[in-house]
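To whoever is covering the structure queue this week,

Two jobs came back overnight. Logging them here so there's a record in the thread.

Job A:
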Amino acid sequence: MNSVISYLIYFLFFLVFTLAPIDIALNIKISGFNLRLGFLAMVILMVLLGTVIAKDIILKKQKLTLPLYLILLLVVAVINLLFVPNSVYIPRGLVYALTLLLFVFLISFSVNTREYISLEKIVDIYVFSFLLHALLGAVQFILFYGFGINFFMPQLGRINGLTYEPSYYVTYLVPGTILITLMALFLNEKRGRMIFYSLTASLMLLVLIFSTSKLGIVESVTVILLAILVGVFLKLFKVLKEVNLKRNVSYFVAFTVFFAAIFYVSGNIGSIVNFLFPGKGEERISYLEKAEKVLASSKETSFDMRLSQFKETLGIALENPLLGKSLGGVAPYRALKNGMNPKNNDDVKQFEGMNIFAEMLAGFGIIGFLLMLGFIILISYDGVRLGIKALASNYRVSIILIGLVLGFLLELFFLMFNQNVLRLYLWNHITLLALAIEKARYEYTSD
């Protein structure tokens, strides 16, 4: 019976991981709110995990335990719920508050189901979900530049997966890219598994670069630099002796060169055809020309607009630092200050705070914000501390923990530029990080 439950949990995790970033398909719109299929799968998963834990508690097989960082997060979620009446548009405040609570429950239930799930299998499912979305981006690129077919690209020539825009797509990819790159370079697994990791990491890295998003280029450079730093760190701890680093690097470089050639040829096939057969490829769109236009548009980016939104959101927080507007109430309050009385969720989308930390300060109030910072610091500290401790006892878990912590911090950083903190894929990553922390705490240390 436990094996059936385990496979069902794995399947639901696969659905949640795979559907999480999808914005422009598989949605149901209700009163201005998008009910995404990935979120629905997450709710089903949470209910299943909760049912399993409740059954085991009743049968006295286990007790529900919450680490300190989850207690902090739960308190933040309750504070946010209490501030919902301060929202100008109550339905949005309530939806956001309940969403945050559901994420807390998902993490809490997940870390209490060690007997039903394997961290290694969950991580491989997570990696596979990123491979699928990286392949989707590659297919979009090749179809458009190679064959002139637009496959779910709102902005022509700019790959976006199934998200709203390229910057959303690359922000989703970045935590997986650093995690899988570290696994590809520094794990010592069987050949087939290492090929799987290297193939996925190199494809994701190139999708970031060829996305035409300036944010993607910054993210790819950041991932490479962090991978080098982690390599130096592991060298100092003398744990690379058992790792076939030469083999791993060879796989990674080979796949990177292979995919780069495919991207370059398909992206510039018009120029290549025109060079070989003058006059035959002039009508094809060139990736290099598209990229040059995007990169040359730096003066036309929305930086000034986002800076203005950040200042305005920060101003709302400073009006009454103790009383927040609730996470979902910040945008409606900004709308009201700009002369609009919001009647539905669509009215306030243009007034979202953009910077997640300013929005959390305005939503949670100073006390809730400090508790949220405490959660971020404590879960990151636990991940690094237990990752270092696990170097000797379980090297694989150690690399996973380090990759998950770096991915978490990178995701928080890049989310500051264009999204909100309730993105499902962020909380998927946090769930996986918490699972790895509790596995290391339970099995590989004396904590």
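Job B:
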Amino acid sequence: MGFFKQQVNLEDFCRNFYDNPFFYLLEQKIDDMGGFAEFTKKAIVEADSKFADVDLQKLKDELTFLRFELFALAWTHKFISGKIVIAQSIFTKNYLKDKEMNDIWIGMNDYNESIHDATIHWLNGLGKINMPFNTRMMGALIDDNIKVAKEMGVIEAEADAIKKVDNRLWSENAWRQKFILTYLQPTFYENLNVNSETLNDEALVLGAIIIKSLYDDAKLSLDNIKISK
């Protein structure tokens, strides 16, 4: 871990990450989404031929949705809540709109909801003793976001961007324990019209590694930065 963090502008950093995809997966470095989708399909098909019928363009789309959503999740885990997290979500929405890629913003929704559902189920599973604390903490973070959004003057105009942020709150432990991953996988396969229950264990493990790598790459990019005010 570095002692010094590079100070960066939020919009410049996010734009650079979005414009320049790179992936480190199974000892391979891949620098475009098309290549990443091809690598993913080939790896999973080698494990289970039932994945061969998956449309490559659809796979690329779903991996793109995941990349944007898991970058935002890693961002939330680093900055927790407040202006920097809300601003990142709003910038992403506007970036995609300007690029005429609003389908990505919409495509993130399924994975965003899966993250929220997984987090709630994880917190509920911790038992009644822990529930009041977790409910209070999540509520406090949501209240903080509402307050900040009002101060920014975006509470109504950017309601969808703020909802995405709220759905990622208090999720770090659920991610660390791979609980969120178990929710993202079925969503991923369902969107690809694949019954995940029919895939063998090797294919499922590869799918999990590929999804997790998108978060890991995002987290790595965030580890040694500080957002300028």
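Note for Job B: The CA atoms of residues 13 and 183 lie 29 Å apart.

Please reply-all if you pick these up so we don't duplicate work.
Q.
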